[in-house]
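Students often ask what a holo structure prediction actually looks like on paper. The answer is less mysterious than it sounds. You provide the chain, you provide the ligand, and the output is a string of discrete structure tokens encoding the 3D arrangement of the protein together with pterin cytosine dinucleotide.
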Amino acid sequence: MDHHHIFEVGGAHLSRLEDLRLIKGEGCYAADWSLPNQAHAAFLRSDRAHAKIVSINTDAARKARGVLGVYTGEDAVKAGYVKPLSMLTFPGKDGKKAIIPERPVLAHGKVRFVGDLVALVVAETALQAQDAAELIEVEYEDLTPVIGVDAALKAGAPQLHDNIPGNQCFEQEAGDAAAVEAAFKNAAHVTRLKLDCTRVVPNPMEPRACLIGYDAGSGVYTVHVPVQGINMMRMQLAAYTGLSDDKLKIMARDVGGGFGQRSIAYPEYVAAMIAAKALNRPVKWVSSRSESFLSDSHGRANYINAELALDKDGTFLGMKLDWIADLGAYLHPAGPVSPMRNPVVCLNGVYKTQALFGRWRVVLTNTSPVSAYRGAARPEIAYTIERLVDEAAAQMKIDPAEIRRRNFIPTDAFPYKTPTGSVYDIADFPAVLDKAMKMADATGFAKRRVASEKAGKLRGFGFSTVIENSGAGMFPKDEVLLEVAADGNLTAYSVSHSQGQGHETTFAQIIGDVLGIKTERIKLRQAINEKPLMGNHTGGSRTIVGAGTVCHLAAKKLIEVATPLAAEMLGVEPSQVAYANGEFQSKESTKKVSLGDIAAKKPLSATGEGKFGSTFPNGCHVAEVEIDPQTGVTEVVSYVTVDDCGTVINHTIVEGQMHGAVAQGWGQIFGENVVYDPETGQLMTGSFMDYAMPKAGWIRDMKIYDHATFGTISPLGVKGMGESGCTASLAALTNAVMNALRPLGVQPLDMPLTAPKLWQAITAANKGK
Ligand code: MCN
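The corresponding structure tokens follow.
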């Protein structure tokens, strides 16, 4: 990675402190927890997409060997566990609020997607529970399933929920409709695209699991689940159950991937709470991968009609969107908030376009509920804008880098207030683009294209210039507690929770940098109920800006708190004491007092706190592809990233984050795609055999650079970046493919750009000649 312009904190390429423990198999994931006398759960799931439940006969299951209890929708309704938390509370068009569908934690009256929960069986062993679940007889009355947003919105479409007419539960508008109308009237050129940001399955490595303990004396539940932060999980469980926070103890240590999917309090967890209380025994459930495909939240599923108006020189005059989000059968707590909020925040992208308008609708279908997935609609809006810009450039025969330069927000315009009210604090888009073009050797492309042509291949060069908002978080502040032990070692406690982002390392670097203490002596502990702290969960690329900055503040505060104590021990005034590398010293003597010495005498700790707004990481990703016209197979021969995430705390981690996120974008563009059968609503892509995850061999030789501006939101100058690779890669890869195919006359294609799709397009184009 290029270190130019970088403000170093800690070790630039420090290896991750957590990795040795994790690769030695010493991690503790949700399924690794056990409680004495635990029983095991299995769920009976709906095998159809849309049906009335006429009757459920659980007699045989109850009598089966080892079975302790069987629970159905009746139990869920009796417990009152029917209303999940919804964060879609803001008003939409004409001040109308969203209609939030009820979701009993076990389906009651109706099933609404394949995988919907019908019954919970608890037995002495997991296999006994599974066997017994198969003995449950359900009589259904089938209803026509609603698959896809067009089917959902069609007049007379079957209705999923009685109280949600037309299957649309929310509509909003943003921007200035009149300004956009005027812009389109004056346009010399309009580019129109229909864009499907397809539905994907996030697929973290760790399958979902829960272990619920219940203490009848205190009424406290211990909930062991994979989390992105315990406060968020507790808040949702409290809302679903009506229990107070002190009755919910959320336990988690290592989390094997989250991607947004692990921030949700799923109905399985709440149903297991019913059983744990009824049986007065801990109840454990570990999901199979097949269940994950069916029932863990899906991602993206946004369908957009987009139009860009330009003047004759390629200046963007206005953009108009019609955006439909398919949220599945029910609403996850934050699910609809992502597509309603994030696209509006960065509606102008990196451009100075003034006239912007969009209409957004939240639609329900008989499919698995959708929620945030790495980027949470930031990739979708970036994809929309960058596909429009690239197609417009091609249609108007303007160089795609040049059209962007003409429209960039100029570097001296920051802080920049966007037409939808965001404030981009600082960025340098032209410099990022220039560096990316240089690193990707844009000027040498023409030659490389000729060489590919000679070898019978189609070569394409494409890129995107994007910006996104890191999440500010809904909790009033972030707190980190720092405690010093008598041996001088430090423990930091946080609410944020790494699922693989390497916080144990970066937090230790930030704290170590202030205190002059080696990172190995600083341990991060997450999800510790005994240290109640305020703070946001890890998501929305907010952790470095929130909890990370607070680590810095906590370390500074620790010196402040310890200084008078050190002075007392040194027998001097606090003003006489200087701190360096874990020790205090008075100017007058050589005597030293360490943080550990102080902690040996009395407890020494400090809590850092702060509230931080969104940062605006941005970047340019450049993809170069070679497509074999005989097979339609695309090879990405080069992938270059230049990003501005402010101060880089740890280059190794930032590079790893970029790799992972780009791989996810890559997966979505070239293979990953959830397909439901439109007639039956069956999930056709329910396993790794038919759902194409990106594989290591696909992605070679990614070159990662940065061009940092010092962010103004955090005193560290950092901007979040955990999602940037998803945001930039979707459009960069598609633009590269279209750049290769456009000369043949191929019209705009959309994800997934599978080999058969490309082969057909190439073949049809060649036939037409
Ligand atoms: N970092 C840094 N310097 C910066 C910015 C970030 O060194 N200027 C480091 C941070 O200290 C942190 C990592 O990079 O170790 C990512 O930081 P940040 O951008 O703050 O993102 P979060 O830690 O909040 O992570 C959330 C983000 C999201 S939203 C998803 S989804 C996601 C992701 O990160 N899911 C992941 N990365 C993932 N990585 C793994 N392995 N697994 C997931 O589930």
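The first helix runs from residue 19 to 23.
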